[in-house]
Write a structure and sequence with these properties.
This protein is of the alpha+beta class. It contains twelve helices and nine strands. The protein has three domains: 127 residues, no CATH class; 93 residues, Nucleic acid-binding proteins (OB fold (Dihydrolipoamide Acetyltransferase, E2P)), CATH 2.40.50.140; 70 residues, no CATH class. The mean pLDDT is 82.
Length: 344
Amino acid sequence: MGFGSIKNVGIMPVNHIVKQREQNGLYKGFTDFCERIANEAINKKCIESLIKAGAFSEFKQTRSTLLASFESIIDSIQSEKKKAFKGQVSMFDLGTEEGKQELNEIKYSFEEHEELPNKELLSLEKEMLGIYISGHPLEKLRNQIIATTNIDTIQLRKIDEQQMSSNLNSADIELLKQESGQKYQDGQKVKYAGLITSIKKKYTKNNKIMAFVTIEDIYGSAEIIVFENAYIKAGKSLVEENIVIVEGRLSIREEDTTTIIADNIKDFEEQKKKIFVLDITNASEEEKQKLRGAIRYFNGDKNNINVEVKVGEEYKSCGQIYLTEEIKKIFQRILGPEQVKIKE
């Protein structure tokens, strides 16, 4: 992806940056970059956008340091250029190119800051480029999302594809359903999780508030319709860039894109508080042995929930496992459905 894709960075600045690099070699650092493009049509807003997009990540300064320092550095460079134009020479104008670069690092001081949290860095990339470059803010939660939801954007798009195929004969439609694994119906309860990217509030004819909320998961975006009751219940969770889980109902229409009508929206972080509880109070030794084997087998790098065993009224921590609905059924077959629960 080229610099021209970055917000506030036009074709002319990109051409100047590339031309300068081709004629005089790679940029040795941020101050070297600023000095070499000082007389070109590249303003502070353009440089700020380049910083936010991570264009200077190969240099030693953090993005937070560059954002705090770039304006003062540019002002200092412009002041030096004016002095040079008037014929004034400073000690920094003498010596080798390598020496000048070292002196520049001293002359143009940086306001040092620790790097921004990864979530903020990704947010800056999305703001400037429209996509995430360094990763996706949901990637670390992927396994938790899989374990706590029953639908994602890929499955929503498959529903739409089937709706568009309504002109096929019944045999073709049935085959398409089998191939896609589609099991969803209009009005079916679903759980969907992702990052809120936009909220459009409106008022109904009855003067009740509602919202169309776009939520992005790892695979794409879905529209969530939020009526007044759900909107009020959502409270502070309903803000852009917040990661949420939506409990709601599918709205499948032949002429429209499939949406979800929300019943409840809450912070996805709340899901971390859940504990997988296994009641072994009345379990036989054979069942306990199978249980220990299952816990060991499903323990690994993708763990997404804490496990506790219950003996009478006592609870004991038993590590973590990777849990999905299918894995939960395995534990239920060992102990029985009533002995396997997820505790908030």
